[in-house]
Amino acid sequence: MHQKALLFVLLVAGLLCVSLAPTCWAQDQNQDEDADVEDDLDLDLAGTEDDDELDGDEETPPAPKAPAAPKVTYKAPEPMGEHFFAESFDRGTLDGWVLSKAKKDDADEEIAKYDGKWAVEEMKDTKLPGDKGLVLKSRAKHHAISAPLLRPFTFDSMPLVIQYEVNFQSGIDCGGAYVKLLSETPGLDLDQFVDKTAYTIMFGPDKCGEDYKLHFIFRHKNPKTGQYEEKHAKKPDADLRSYFTDKKTHLYTLVVNADNSFEVLVDQTVVNSGNLLKDMTPPVNPPAEIEDPDDHKPEDWDERPKIQDPDAVKPEDWDEDAPAQIPDEDAVKPDGWLDDEAEYIGDPDAIKPDDWDEDMDGEWEAPQVPNPACESAPGCGPWKRPMIDNPSYKGKWKPPMVDNPNYQGIWKPRKIPNPDYFEDLQPFKMTPFSALGLELWSMTSDIFFDDFFITNDRNTAERWAADSWGLKKAAEGAAEPGLAAQMLTAAEERPWLWIVYVLTVALPLVLIIVFCCTGKEKKTTPAAEYKKTDEPQPDVRPAAEDKNDEEEAAAEEEEGEKEATTEEVRKKKLRTRSNLCQREAGINDPQKEDDILRRSPRSRRLRKD
């Protein structure tokens, strides 16, 4: 029992260590980061003198190299199947892309130009040498770049599938990484691509502050007015934070089907889905009825559900002037109260400043400090009775509230048919688009884009993703250490983690073994434990057993006496009957009488084993 209690205490201690481990780890990381910053500052200030000193020191042995990760060889993806746009940037140039030369309206002249820099290069910490992409290089600038499709995409009976990759190499503070599918219009000029250029769909990640978004917006054309209105998909249910902060390459995919359903995927996992008719804001179709703008509430319309009772009368004993609190008449001034002492006095040690000008500053007075005489007393100054709640206080009288007999409910304007009503049951049939563009503002540079692909076949898009993003995922996964390696590395840096590992792994196993394989010990008598090979034991029985035997013998003797008495009574009855029978039969021979008694079945006794 004591062992189990000890193990239980150890388990509680282990759980406490596990719960405190993340906090301690975070503190260690913060200390490490602070130390790194201090080391960097020290290195920056050291100069050439430290270099000379280092030259004189002995060379430190090189750190042991980690085992080489499995190498993933990059191969440029080749589009297979029907597609409208495919770009992997493996040529290393911006051929086919158009940089905007326009200015943004309603912006300061200094930042109005779309002069943000773009480059085609590998990622800074690439795990897949040879893989290049489009990189947004400038911060706090407007960027705009676009490329035409192989042919315009028309929404008919085939789905739209667009996908591309994004890697926030330096994280992201405030900025977007979304794409725009530019509508096919007669006046489309990619040189003048700006924020107001007509687009059909806008899709992709966007973040500012702690607001993480994944846009899906399409512009719907009103069939009655010809005006376009943006329709925004509902927010994803998934947590998007890690896609912006983990500095990994993520694959963003949008699928819009001819039945008006849509799916938004990140890394081939659905994070949002819905229907264009049901899950867009504002709705595609306006309401059939609207409130009449010319309808006004009547002046005599009563919306009050409750009113004051007009028949209520204030009680005669209701005193509205009674105060809420009164002095406590039962209170008594404490002994030792110093009525003549002030609670605060002028500081006797204070000295008037030399630059004090009484003409300008007035008469100087020492600052007030607590009176030391009041420290040991219950109080100082004039004593006043404490205030208590007035039991007679009722406050200002108000009539009680009753149901309003004239209540008419909350007024609403009447409904009329919506003059702008229409019903579009196929919002999938959007405006055709003929170009893809990036029009972005970002406070963070080095945003990496790659492997844009537009098709009307989902299988084709998945093959492209397997040949492009699939390689990146494999390379990044191969470069990361396994869970066991991460735990060992962390324990080498922080030895106290070994305690956590032992308590979380070994201790539960020990507890399971103890509780499952042990139980209450059964008490056995010495006779039960005796074997033939053991030494002979004396025939000594406990006193309790002897007592039980005596009681059993007495009971048997008493039972035997009762049986003997019963037998004698039975024989007497038989003799009496036999005599009667003999008299009737005329038999007086005693020998015959004994034979009759012996042959009688009632005189026979059962044998007891």
UniProtKB/TrEMBL annotation:
Membrane topology listed for this record: Single-pass type I membrane protein
Biased segments, Basic and acidic residues type: 294-316, 525-535
Example of a GO MF term: carbohydrate binding
Protein family per UniProt: Belongs to the calreticulin family.
Biased composition (Basic residues): 599-609
Alphabetically ordered keywords of this record: Acetylation, Calcium, Chaperone, Disulfide bond, Endoplasmic reticulum, Lectin, Lipoprotein, Membrane, Metal-binding, Mitochondrion, Palmitate, Phosphoprotein, Repeat, Signal, Transmembrane, Transmembrane helix, Ubl conjugation
Protein name listed in UniProt: Calnexin
Region annotation (Disordered) ranges: 46-74, 275-335, 364-383, 525-609
Function noted in UniProt: Calcium-binding protein that interacts with newly synthesized monoglucosylated glycoproteins in the endoplasmic reticulum. It may act in assisting protein assembly and/or in the retention within the ER of unassembled protein subunits. It seems to play a major role in the quality control apparatus of the ER by the retention of incorrectly folded proteins. Associated with partial T-cell antigen receptor complexes that escape the ER of immature thymocytes, it may function as a signaling complex regulating thymocyte maturation.
GO annotation (BP), single: ERAD pathway
One of the Pfam families matching this protein, by short name: Calreticulin
